[in-house]
Amino acid sequence: IFSALFYLKLKQQFSQAMKSSSNTSVSGDLISKKRNGKGSVSSAEPINRTDQPRDSSAKAVSVVSMSKKSNGKAVLCSDVPMRHIGGTGVSSAKTHEVMFFKDVRFGPQEGELRFRLIHFWEARNPIKKVLIGIEMLLIDEQGTVIQGFIPPGRIDTYLPHMIAGSIYRLTNFYGSRSKTVYRVAEPIVAITFSWTSVLSVFEDSSVHFPEDRFRFNGYEEFEAGCDLGGDLYDYVGHIKLVGEQALTAGLVLDEVEIASSRRLMVHVQTHDGHVMKLYLWDKAATDFCEKFKANGNTPSVILVTTVNPKRFGGALTLSSLSSSRVFLDLDVQPTRDYMTWLGSNTDVANRVNPDIVTKAETVTIGDLFSYIKHEGSKVAWFECTATIDDVVHGSPWYYISCGGCKTKATKGHTTLMCKKCGKAEVTGVAEYLTKLSVYDKNDHGFFVLLGDAGRELTGKPASELVERYFEANESVGDDHMVPVPQALIDTIGQTRTFIVKVSKHNLEGKTRSLTVTKVLPLEAAAADGNLEENVIASAVEETLQMGKRVNGSSSEHEGSTDAAVKRSFDGDESEEAKRAKCG
């Protein structure tokens, strides 16, 4: 009887324990409440939790979790006495060895990293725009900066709990090889969040972590690394022009235009006197506007991180990427230091006129052909003065673009589509793609007007000329190709100054025709060659070339438009130059 009673009591206790255990199971990616009331996110399968007291020296209660793997074996998970994020099957409840970034090696590692999250951003495929993951910039207590990465499948687990500037600890991670193109930190190894990683807030105030660390380059270093796609460095200097406006008190930014074009051009001068065009794209442009407005006085100093040096318009330029951050005046210590220097060196600050360094190199038609034949030549822009001999007939003088991005639209069954925007229905707008026969004193060649360059030559947009023709000829069908308009024919005999692009197709020998991205006004071309700020490529061409900004993305727009120009030279575009249709 005693044995039977003991057995029944033991069975009852076991049943109660199992019932209590089942009531505390949590789902993998859901937020559960710890005993301290803080949320905990885990990517694990449903687990059972049992509370156990820590020793008397602990500041909070630890939670030991057991999860079932597919082989049925239980794996212990040692929680930290603070917010706990991520982790499936974390190895053992032992204390992890604290590591510094300099100690990280390739492969899976179980050590504990402590760091400040400086910045994080989305990494997307430059062509398909598919999200690749989240990239991060991290700094440890020794001041070492390293790049971090969260794969797309784990973003929802960690991203909602990440705050730039906060301090974290990470256990169980993977040391992966850092990318060699557009790298934002020096170490060749990067910290990748693995399926066993556990991220938690680090609350020990006795450990100091630097706020940030910058890597600055000057004009010569950027010149040496131009168009190479190597490491990305930071740039600081004082502002000379915002857009085409001089930096004066009360300067007002055209926020509507900036939001529409998603870019802003700033001329910046450095300590050593060089002035460069700095292109701010997307979020960097928005951040600049917000900081500019919030500043009590007109800001004079700018710092932009991880800029990409490019040859554009024949001059060295810098372009922001998705990893870039913008700081003004008193935002960070380097801008404060630069302001102090600027106040004591006004003679150096005003030494160089930005109009001089932004002017494209002047060449003849013969010089352009010689440059194309020269081994090692790169895509570049030049200023060339030539006389228009004729408008070439037999090939279309315009193309139908997407009304939003100006990329060439493609014809669907009943609508126009845009591959770049990913839209199955867009409004078509006619844009110039006009081939001109030109000559100077010694040579003859072919120039092709692209986009706004045609309007700058004729004074009329292509869309207006196309619509006028169809309004005057209602009997023709939508697929009819509009003949060369009188506005273009009237330019024959004019001597004009063009900004000409030597494209990849020119360098590869696929075509000798050169793309015109801008036509200078007659009065500017005659003013002793002083171009001032007129040497700025059209919005179309800037978008084509400088679109290499997300993760150092490839020139999708440039390639597609150059290809369209080449096909136009060869007479293959006649079926595409149709009437612009809506939808």
UniProtKB/TrEMBL annotation:
Record-annotated Replication factor A C-terminal domain positions: 381-475
Biased composition (Basic and acidic residues): 555-583
Pfam hit, one: Rep_fac-A_C
Region Disordered: start-end pairs: 22-65, 548-583
Record's keyword terms, sorted: DNA-binding, Metal-binding, Zinc, Zinc-finger
Superkingdom classification of source: Eukaryota
UniProt-listed CDD domains: RPA1_DBD_A_like, RPA1_DBD_C
Sequence similarity: Belongs to the replication factor A protein 1 family.
UniProt-recorded name of the protein: Replication factor A C-terminal domain-containing protein
Organism: Brassica napus
Lineage: Eukaryota, Viridiplantae, Streptophyta, Embryophyta, Tracheophyta
